[in-house]
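In the previous lecture we treated proteins in isolation. Real proteins rarely work alone, and many bind small molecules. This record shows how such a complex is specified: first the sequence, then the SMILES for flavin-adenine dinucleotide.
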Amino acid sequence: MVRGTFLENEPMSKHTTYGIGGPVTAFLYPVDENDLETILKFAHSQRFPVYVIGSGSNLLVSNHGFDGIVISLRKTFKELRIPDRNVYVQSGVIMSKFVKECAKHNLTGMENLMGIPGTLGGALVMNAGAYGEEISNHLILLDIMSTSGKKKRIRKKDVVFDYRYSSLMDSKEIILSAEFEFDKGVKEEIQDRMSQAITSRKTSQPIQNRSAGSVFRNPPDTKPAGYLIDQAGLKGVHRGDAEISAKHANFFINCGNATAEDMAQLIRLARKTVKEKFGVYLNLEIETLGFPNNFFDA
Ligand SMILES: Cc1cc2nc3c(=O)[nH]c(=O)nc-3n(C[C@H](O)[C@H](O)[C@H](O)COP(=O)(O)OP(=O)(O)OC[C@H]3O[C@@H](n4cnc5c(N)ncnc54)[C@H](O)[C@@H]3O)c2cc1C
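The predicted 3D structure, ligand included, written as tokens:
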């Protein structure tokens, strides 16, 4: 019996920072690991597709929604303990809370991540990063659960982390919690770096608009994706209510009632134009849910 909150035909527009996405068959907030295990075992036995989200801040969901179960750990997996230089944190903890708590204990290494929206679980899966720092840098171990409900402890070396990539994306295992180890730093310097990160974001990103951050990964050995899209003359271009931000061309924003199809049209346009002008194919950084294969191909 599931003890957590269960929502039927829940629109994903309520659970993504884009504010876009149709209904899912069931949306669940498990109360704890046992509850999550029950849900996963049930879904596995019934062959229901399962998708786990954090805050949906890196996610574009189809307007047709998703025929399956979406699980979020954002409201319930909130424990955070800092006994010394080690930090134990559950995956539903919001990133800014995690960064601030590290700072409060004079632990250094995460300050540049201040301002990245979303949960710790989402950040680890995406290997979120900013200004030269990545969430995986100080990671020691992870407690994960397989989609069939088996719990396992793994060490950092068991996971491949790369630029906005972790092998957890492929294994689809669910992150329950993580442990980090940090060095002690100087309080004022930590605070300064956090403030700088926030200021840089405010100046360069359209943070007052609905977005999912950078749409494309920066391609290797060339200019950043935002620069290429800008140089392709696409800043400010819109399809319906979706717009390539005039402030940062790798941020596509929902100016009101944008649909997933509007966003998809901009994605295809950016891919096609950048490929034609610069010979570079842009890979998506955002995750997508509920779309047919090759839907975003230019
Ligand atoms: C304004 C803005 C600025 C941003 N700036 C940055 C930035 O500077 N750097 C950066 O890296 N990102 C940035 N992002 C993108 C986004 O915030 C990060 O990728 C974030 O880490 C995603 O966390 P989330 O909880 O919202 O994950 P979601 O979007 O909910 O999910 C992302 C992926 O992780 C998976 N996932 C989530 N939780 C779990 C879990 N517990 N176990 C297993 N899988 C899970 C999902 O299935 C999905 O594949 C930005 C986004 C916005 C809106």
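Summary for your notes: The mean pLDDT is 97. The radius of gyration is 19 Å.
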